[in-house]
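Protocol step 6 of 9: fold each sequence in the batch and record its structure tokens directly after the sequence line. For illustration, a two-sequence batch is reproduced in full.

Sequence one:
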Amino acid sequence: MTTSTSPLLSARGVRIVFPGRHGAPDARAVDGVHLDIRPGEIVALVGESGCGKTTLARALLGLVEPTAGRITFDGRPLEYSGRSLKAYRKRVQLVLQDPSGSLNPRHTVYDAVAEGLRIHGHGGDERAVVADALSRAGLRPPERFFLRRPHELSGGQRQRVVIAGALVLEPELLVADEPVASLDASVRGEILALLLRLRAELGLSALVVTHDLGLAWNIADRVAVMYLGRIVETGPVEQVLTAPRHPYTRALLSVLPEAPGEPVVLTGEPPDPSRVPSGCRFHARCQVLAGGGADRAGVAEACRGRDPEILDGGGATQVACHWAHAGKG
């Protein structure tokens, strides 16, 4: 699916630390991430709540400046001046989880979609551009929707309006944060099919942030699984999801309805970025370590005491796991 080997968007060694309040330890929300997105590629960033995926997405959008590391777009480092960010956000657009939260209830559909054009000073035929974006987003005939307000639309139609609002600026990359989480199952498939069609028609790239591996399977070319601020497994979606090597990826997959065997119930505390453990950050909840598998492979000590290397963010299948590298994963 990719059209080029050089990344459109690239994160290198990105760290985002939020200072703790009232003497509390700092929170390492993103703790060393390399991630590439190539032209025409859809990458799913997957993990449970609190793993840092939304903070990373915000950094990739230029909404949060990294504490360390750098982000480049089209080969150039992201700059944080107002003018540079405005130009950048024309090329990289956000699609939020809850369309009703991102649409002003007092605005018509036309005004909601035209807002980006007005902010960025579009000089052409506004009405034609708005109509084209609505049509591409599957709201046809578009003129029928111009004067409607969000409360007059279904959830799926509202999400299409949000997508149309992103499309009017002809971006190269969409960052979609849980784009179908608030929608009924019947509508989810339609929105995912729309995103795939937009990629085919416009050559769009996308980063889809989700906790749902099933969604990743249906839409992504490549998946990056995130745990406690770091990507722990990445690769082509079919390879990672049919032959997962990291115990965390295996646990996430085990709870899908179609998964074979019993679901893996993760014990221990959910990820807390202000208390990142030594060694492998997953070791305190790892079913392989708890079940003696790491001991048998001779890596239990490494799991508890040695941090696995940061994955390089490219297209190859990679895993940050001592047990998997011992030939067991």
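Sequence two, same batch, same settings:
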Amino acid sequence: MTNFLTAEWRKLIMANYAVDPNILLPLLPKGTELDIFEGKAYVSLVGFMFINSRIFGVPIPLMGSFEEVNLRFYVKRWVNGEWRRGVVFVNETVPFKVVAVIANWLYKEHYTAIPTKHEWFMNDTKQAIHYYWKKQGIWNELTIEASATSQKMKAGSVEEFIFEHYYGYTKVDAINTIEYNIAHPSWEIYPVKKVTINCDFGAMYGAAFAHLSHLKPDSIMLAEGSNIAVKWKRNKL
């Protein structure tokens, strides 16, 4: 299957919040259902780096590496006797308007282009990963301090649930859904020591998520990431 996009996704921070499933149902693409872990529906505030991005193998001049921040939730779809587990993006933020336009056009996603920046500090024992994005003149922040030694995810853990989703689903409208495949190996994670989140969820993602600005996440994760590939084939459901 031809790859549309290849890149590295690196230093992925996931701040995971359990929410009322009724908040997510209006956003649910047709043909999918919410993927629940231990009785909870989760949304994740995610920050990471796109590095060495290529479209059909061709480097993207001046825009191959950039920050992305997104809010996503988890769904599944029954196909040929097995579950396809995927994510739905409420919004994805990147610094380049052309990247947002292409993604919205081809995959009907919900990208916006606003200023972003990042800082990474690493030594032999610890690391500090910072992502920032500017909305309505104010810088939001997602920062994590973690060990420098990675470990494998435990089978059946919340970390495995959050990270092991390999499909993207987009709600085009009430009757149309786009499905696409995202390929990457299982990731290793780092023990987390400290987190700082300053996010205006209401301004970024709408009134339904505004209350998350005042909540502590249920869990925080940092994954190393890997090379990834987004397949060109898009299934219309």
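Proceed to step 7 once all outputs are recorded. Observation for sequence two: Helices lie at 21-24, 97-107, 158-163, 201-205.
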